[in-house]
Amino acid sequence: MPLAETPNVIAALPELFLALIVMVSVVLGVFQKGGANEINVKVFRVVFWLSTISITLTAFLLILYAGERTVTFAGLFLSDTYSVFCKILILTGSVITLVIARQFLERHEMARFEYPIIITIATLGMLMMVSANDLISLNLSLELWSLSLYIIAAIRRDDIRSSESGLKYFVLGALASGLFLYGASLIYGFSGTTNFDELSKIFSASTDAKIGLGIIFGITFIIAGLAFKIAAVPFHMWTPDVYEGAPTPVTAFFAVAPKIAALALLIRVMVGPFGDLWAHWQQIIVFLSIASMLLGAFGAIKQYNIKRLMAYSSIGHIGYALIGLANGNEAGVRAVLIYLAIYLVMNIGCFACILAMRKDDRMVENIESLAGLGKSHPLLAAAMAIFMFSMAGIPPMAGFFGKLYIFLAAIENELYLLAIIGVLTSVVASFYYLRIIRIIYFDDIDEPLDKPIDKEIGIVTTFAGLAVLFFFLYPGYLVTKAATAAASLFSG
Question: Which of 37, 103, 214, 331 shows a CA-CA span of 20 to 30 A to 450?
Fold first, then answer.
């Protein structure tokens, strides 16, 4: 598409709308901000609800204007069913983690208007990178997202753990960005283009003998850069420290929307421009998957901080999801999309429960603090048990079906080793999930958690728990939507 050609604005309307809201929110926050804390809290609430409503409206715009595969803005931006599916998951994760954060932010004197704005900017970056159709637009949107996350990880400036986690994330993130850019430069140097459609045409017409070593190295560096974003082993080093050090609402956000966006992007890059080179990059994905499953299963066993445990849990879940990508076919991608949707609900519900862990109006993060929760907070304990059972993959919870689709796709593609390791690590991981349930129901209560639970947290845990518990009654809708999204990715 020539640069002079008028772009199709409708295809990018959700992103343009969200960008406009960001600018309005910044102006509103700057001009309304005052010296008194009460004024700042009022400004925070205005910007907070503006951001929350805007992200929700963006999801409706996506659904309303979803249509055929559209490439616009000189080939830099792509809208298709796959991107719409992933964006709905991203927006859902962003808006819910934002809603459950409000009471925490006000209670801990973090109610600054910058917080919802940064979340909105990060969400905008995620939407753009899922629709990227060029290595240049991909990098720009990736950096917009990354810079927002660096800031928000260290947003609690008076807490040394938060500042330390933000600094670690920034340093390692800069290294990952450098790896990605080096890989992109190699791809451009050996192919002469950065456009995904053009790259796909070049590689589909090439034989293995014509694929230069520079292309293989370029793909390897791109995978390394993106593997950092999804916290796949061995690029996971930042995850436990950042999850533990960042404020809990920030950790909840990190565990949901950015993970889904980064994995959706990795799938887009691998299947789109490099789909015909599957034989060259499959072994890299297989290694990342096995390493992530093993570390996620064994690394969490000795953890006593629940946020740190969830960090290793998320690494393990990424390993399972990568099994689907290693298939390199439509069935594998469909399984990953189903898994991501279920992962979204499980993690949102789990972190909502973690946000309810307060004693004497202060947050507690030690797993032992959950002792006696079954007696003091029976409904919260039941919700936490549902999420733990689901993450362990125990039927009939939704998590079981997520892993089932992944393992079936691997077996159909004769990736027996991945399927076997996946099942074995699921058994090992069940130990620390079930340990939490044991503590909740069978350990003696020391000091009960505070009552009452925030209204937003109660609503989120209720709906997430019901969705996880009763998913088996009607899985067809999600499976159909995921299949349609996967088909659009391969038909492009």
Answer: 37
